[in-house]
Amino acid sequence: MKLERDPRLVDGKGLFASVVEYGRRIAQVVNPFDDSIAALNAAIGTPRAGAASITATLDGPAFSAYLASAQTGVTAGAYVQAVFGSEEFDTGSCYSTSNGRFQPTVAGYYQINASITAICSGGAFTNVQLALYKNGSAFKRLDVSLASNSTTWQASGCALIALNGSSDYVDARCFTGGGTGVSFDGDAGATKSHFSGHLARRA
Q1: pTM, whole model, 2 decimals?
Q2: What is the distance between the alpha carbons of residues 152 and 138, in angstroms, rounded to a whole number?
Q3: Same-domain pairing of 74 and 25
Q4: How far is CA 92 from CA 21, 108, 162, 202, in A?
């Protein structure tokens, strides 16, 4: 096979000029692309007025807590708070294992998740209800289940909640009907009763 020289390259002094011209034409294609990338980066790096940067949101508070053992003495027929006494993580130290409250120090909208497994030693559940409370008042009812005369029932749900970053707090509570000797079940693997949340967007 015979290899032929690029006709744009000429001998002698013209060879250098041809190479320069060839490079100039490539630059005409590449430079606009580089300019477009730079413009895109600049746009992404400049948040709209009043908005926090993406990095700041990703650095917001996040936690995950759970019951490592059963919470006993739960009153049937009332919404009872679950106090999740063990943590998997708590990036902003905003969750309290002593009172079961998540009280973030950054204002914004938080994705809050809860799951509680209720068990009873006497009778059987007729219904189990799960709710999120904000500042001590019912805020979002997450799960209302007819428990079909079961002695074990897990209720789960999630909600997006606005918290002011100072006085606002949220906790999870569960209502049980029909059973006696009620407890919220727990385990070391954090699978039965757990509570978590993270900052989805700053205010």
Answers
A1: 0.73
A2: 24
A3: no
A4: 58, 14, 17, 15
Which amino acid belongs to residue 42?
A
Q: What is the domain count for the chain?
A: 2
Radius of gyration of the chain (CA): 30
Claim to verify: residue 19 and residue 116 sit in the same structural domain:
no
Same domain, 117 and 194: yes
> Is the separation of the CB atoms in 128 and 184 below 8 Å?
no
Whether 51 is covered by a domain: the verdict is: no
Q: Can you give 56-86 as a three-state secondary structure string?
A: HHHCCCEEEEECCCCEEEECCCCEEECCCCE
Each residue's pLDDT expressed in tens, for the chain with a length of 203 residues: 555 555 555 555 555 555 556 556 655 654 555 555 555 455 555 555 555 556 666 789 999 999 999 999 999 999 999 999 999 999 999 999 999 999 999 999 999 999 999 999 999 999 999 999 999 999 999 988 876 779 999 999 999 999 999 999 999 999 999 999 999 999 999 999 999 999 999 99
Nearest to 81 by CA among 21, 171, 11: 171
Structural tokens at position 57: 């949101």
Per the CB < 8 A criterion, the answer to whether 79 and 131 are in contact is: yes
Q: Kindly state whether residues 189 and 149 are assigned to the same domain.
A: yes
Q: Residue 52 falls within a domain, yes or no? A: no
Q: Are 106 and 199 within 8 A, CB to CB?
A: yes
Residues in the chain: 203
Copy the structure tokens of residue 173: 């509570």
